[in-house]
C-alpha cells in the first residue's frame, strides 16, 4: 500500500466493497426469471466474498473484495416445448436466483454501508472539532 | 511525559483517536468471514502511556480480541450492537477530552492576554 491507512481510507474501501456486493446482488435480481436454452448458458448467481486487509503500520484493517464468485447451483430444467428458447427436447433452463436471498443480501449490504457512513461522519466531526481549538 | 500543559488529556486524545480507528475497522469488517474484532482496553492503555511508553506501544499492548456474545458460523466476531455502542462511547470520551483541552487552551490564552 502506497500511503498509510487512516480512518478515511478504511471507510472508503469498506464502502466500495459494499457497493461491489450490492452490484452483484442487483445483477442477480436483474437476471432472475430469465431463461436459457442450455444448462451451460444459464446464468449463475454471483456473490462477492470479502477479506480483511490489515495495515501493519497503523493496526487498522479494512475490507477488500477477495473475489466475485459464481455459485454452482444447478439451473432448473423445465419442459416447455412452446417456448422459442427451448432446445431440441423442448426443455428450457431457468436461472437459480433466490430473490428473497438477494433482497436480504442487498438490505444487509446497505445497512453496513450506512453504518460506515455514520462512523465516518462522527469521526470527521470530531476531527474538525479538534482542528477548531484555538 | 514532557507535555505538562495538557497533562493526561493529550495522551487520552491520542488513544481515543486510535481506538476510534480500530472500532471503525471492526465496523468495516462486519461482513468479512473469519475476521476477529479488536478493541483497545482504554484504561490500561492510558496507564501505560502515562507510565512512559509511547502511544503506539501503549495502544498495541492494550489491544485485545473481543469476546463475542454469540459466535457466528463464519468465524466473524463483529457484533454491530457492541461496535456501535463502543464507537459512541469512545466518541463521547473524545469530545469530553477535547473540551478539557479547549478550556485549558482558553485559560492559557487568557493568562497570556492578561485579562
Q: What is the helix content of chain B?
A: 55-70%
Separation of termini of chain A?
35 Å
Give the C-alpha Rg of chain A: 21 Å
Report, as a whole number of angstroms, the end-to-end distance of chain B: 30 Å
Largest interface: A-B, 32 and 33 residues
Number of helices of chain A: 2
Shape of chain A: elongated
Q: Major sheet of chain A: order of its strands?
A: 1-5-4
Chain-averaged pLDDT of chain A:
88
Structural class of chain B: mainly alpha
- Rg of chain B is 17 Å
Strand content of chain A: 15-25%
Secondary structure: number of strands of chain A: 5
Strand order of the largest sheet of chain B: 1-2
What is the residue-averaged pLDDT of chain B?
90
Beta-strand proportion of chain B: 5-15%
Question: From the helix content, strand content and strand pairing of chain A, which structural class follows?
Answer: alpha+beta
Assembly type of the chains comes to heterodimer
Taken from the alpha-carbon principal axes, the silhouette of chain B is elongated
Low-confidence stretches of chain B: none
Verbal overview:
The complex is a heterodimer of chains A (134) and B (115). In chain A, helix 1 (7-31) packs antiparallel against helix 2 (99-131). Chain A is of the alpha+beta class and 134 residues long. The longest helix of chain A is centred in the last third of the chain and has 33 residues, at 99-131. Helix content of chain A is 43%, strand content 22%. With 115 residues, chain B is mainly alpha-helical. Chain B contains 4 helices and 2 strands; from the N terminus they run αβααβα. Chain B has a two-stranded antiparallel ribbon. Classes of the chains: A alpha+beta (134), B mainly alpha (115). The interface between A and B is medium-sized, with 32 and 33 residues.
